[in-house]
Specification:
six-stranded mixed beta sheet, single chain, 15 strands, globular, binds magnesium ion, 11 helices, binds adenosine-5'-triphosphate, 365 residues, alpha/beta
């Protein structure tokens, strides 16, 4: 997958323009607040129409305008394609190869990218929910069916939890608990299985990237930690049995606390460098390298599934990395199109082959 051209109109602080990126590495540099992340965000928006910064649609429109439009020509599925998104405050209009589409989901099948931004460091720095979110969004992107399983699990879980709270007031309700337990076990086991499979694929690839970034100095491991003792080779049926047993064991505790104390909603992903927890022991540069390796691995999994190399968008990754690690990211991610933003002019000198964009108050040169 390669972006051939990107045109923007009334978008954020960027001056209306067209860029024709290099098919390899593109460095976007400039001072703070010039529009570097805005440009990267524009390249990401074609993945489904949502900002990776959690911005609302109308925040994408230039302040004094009433619509914003992005147009892209890209190479994917072995042909040149076109996509257009228009944000007009109320809704977005999507056009792919000249045909208007009803949903943003149709874009996901055509164009794919992976983004790293400094906020993704929360994957290591914050609690388990961030890591579950990362894995869940990856598996949902892989298959719509996974999104259905996840949403069913979450819905049943919240129903079970409200029943648990009611039981403390009306103990006779306890017998209705099993109504929720079985569907929760079924969907929960499928969810755990998908997550374990995905973590396994991710772990192998992330480990390879991390070896490259750290020039062989560090070993990265990623493991799924299940609160129900589900193991890598367990079948869905075996995981169901373990979940059922755990729910039975925890029943009194669940009623006492009014919440479901074990299950995939309490699981975690352990990220280790040289056998030690990255959250507790890794340096800033190591944490950044680990998250980057995970993100690049996410791109690797997508590549296998879609048969396409996703576009790699790296926002502000180079700070805190030593020269060897910077060089790896700028010159060694072969075969894919990469966009890297940075503030320091010196980074562009590291680039062996590619294009450099300079951003100054929304003007690209
Ligand atoms: P940094 O190096 O600090 O990350 P950056 O170059 O990535 O900076 P951006 O996040 O791209 O900066 O933002 C550039 C500017 O765009 C911000 O100062 C912001 O005020 C401006 N901006 C954001 N949204 C809009 C909008 N809808 N209309 C006009 N300007 C906007
Ligand atoms: Mg930025």
């Amino acid at each position: 997958m390669k972006v051939i051209a990107l045109k923007f109109e009334n978008y954020r602080n960027l001056n209306d323009d067209i860029i024709t990126p290099h098919e390899g590495v593109n460095i976007i540099y400039g001072d703070n607040a010039q529009g570097k992340t805005n440009l990267l965000e524009a390249l990401w928006l074609f993945c489904g129409g949502h900002s990776f910064r959690g911005s609302k649609d109308n925040e994408l429109i230039k302040w004094d305008k009433n619509y914003a439009r992005l147009e892209m020509r890209f190479y994917g599925q072995e042909r040149e394609q076109k996509a257009k998104i228009t944000f007009n405050g109320r809704q977005k209009k999507i056009e792919i190869n000249g045909i208007e589409k009803k949903s943003t989901a149709s874009m996901i099948e055509k164009y794919c990218a992976v983004v790293f931004s400094p906020e993704h460091l929360s994957l290591i720095k914050r609690g388990p929910s961030e890591r579950r979110k990362f894995i869940d969004s990856a598996i949902c992107r892989e298959k719509l069916q996974n999104a259905v399983i996840l949403s069913k699990y979450n819905r049943i879980l919240s129903q079970r939890n409200s029943l648990l709270k009611d039981i403390s007031k009306r103990p006779s309700l306890e017998e209705t608990l099993s109504i929720w337990d079985e569907p929760l076990i079924k969907n929960g086991a499928m969810l755990i299985k998908k997550r374990i499979e995905y973590t396994e694929m991710l772990s192998a690839k992330a480990s390879e990237y991390h070896t490259g970034i750290s020039q062989g100095k560090e070993k990265l491991e990623t493991k799924y930690i299940s609160t129900t003792n589900a193991l890598q080779n367990d079948t869905v049926e075996e995981i169901e049995k373990k979940l059922r047993k755990k729910f039975e064991e925890n029943r009194a505790e669940d009623i006492k606390t009014g919440v479901t104390n074990a299950g995939p909603h309490r699981d975690d992903i352990e990220i280790l460098i040289n056998g030690k927890s990255t959250r507790q022991y890794a340096s800033q540069g190591q944490q950044r390298s680990a998250v980057l390796s995970l993100k690049l691995a996410e791109a690797g999994v997508l590549r296998e599934r879609m048969g396409e190399e996703p576009v790699i968008l790296l926002d502000d990754v180079l700070s805190e990395l030593d020269a060897g690690r910077q060089n790896y990211l700028i010159n060694e991610l072969k075969g894919c199109q990469v966009f890297i933003t940075c503030c320091e002019q010196s980074n562009k000198e590291l680039l062996k082959d590619g294009k450099v964009y300079y951003l100054d108050k929304g003007v690209i040169s």
